[in-house]
Amino acid sequence: MNKSLAGQSTHLPFDLVTEPSVRREDLIESPANSTAISLIDAWPDWPGNITVLAGPVGSGKSHIASVWLTNAGGICCPVNSLPEKMTAIQSCLDSGGNVVLEDAGPGVINETDLFHLINTVRQMKAYCLITSRTWPLEWQIKLPDLLSRLRATQVVELLEPDDLLLKQVMIKLFADRQLMIDEKVIDYCVVRMERSLETATRLVAAIDSEALSRKATISRQIAGKALEKLGMN
User: What is the pTM of this model?
Assistant: First the structure.
């Protein structure tokens, strides 16, 4: 066990909350996300210009896409905003940038615009990373040419966060708040919480808030109260 995490927690007098980091070195790797992390590490040596990053809610798709975009440079756009963002995206591509499209899925895709974007990205030798909860064949695409393009894309799957990833993420989130936590408290949380990285973020904030309100060190009891308030205990 990491000695720096043993014993009771310590707390600074102020509740310091940091923004999620999009640096590559802050990505925590486990079997659940190792393939996706290997993908962004390999860029620009990708087999094609269009890649779909598919995984369940809370698996870290947006975080990994943000890390890639920080390195690759470019613009991020929700898929359902594609029609009104096409001019900005075209300008980005003209300037040598790349594109992240977030949350592709059934009923939210303007098929004509996506088809045009994919063709433009390929012609300009740029790159586009699309995040989705499902694989492209589940998007209910009707346009034959777009469906053909999507069938040819590389799909990289993110799995539901495993125990290792959840533990390491929670330890880092507490450390970002300048808190050191007994790993037994982390273990207690991991077996009771919803399995998503978003939940881990919410839970750490709730535990910190509970400890502050009680002016107490973080313990299983504090964690249990936070889990209860989030409906997970």
Answer: 0.80
Q: What's the DSSP call for residue 163?
A: H
> Which pair of tokens denotes residue 33?
């996300």
- Neighbouring CB atoms inside 10 A of 48's CB total 13
Q: Going residue by residue through the chain (233 aa), what tens digit of pLDDT does each one get? A: 333 333 343 444 344 444 455 678 888 999 999 999 999 999 999 999 999 999 998 899 999 999 999 999 999 999 999 999 999 999 999 999 999 999 999 999 999 999 999 999 999 999 999 999 999 999 999 999 999 999 999 999 999 999 999 999 999 999 989 998 899 999 999 999 998 988 999 999 999 999 999 999 999 999 999 999 999 87
Single out the residue of 69, 66, 24, 57 nearest to residue 159, CA to CA: 57
Query: Got the DSSP string for the chain?
Result: --GGG-SS----SS----PPP--GGGPPP-TTTHHHHHHHHHTT--SSSEEEEE--TTSSHHHHHHHHHHHH-EEEEEGGGHHHHHHHHHHHHHTT-EEEEEEE-TT---HHHHHHHHHHHHHTT--EEEEESS-GGGS----HHHHHHHHTSEEEEPPPP-HHHHHHHHHHHHHHTT----HHHHHHHHTTS-SSHHHHHHHHHHHHHHHHHHT----HHHHHHHHHHTT--
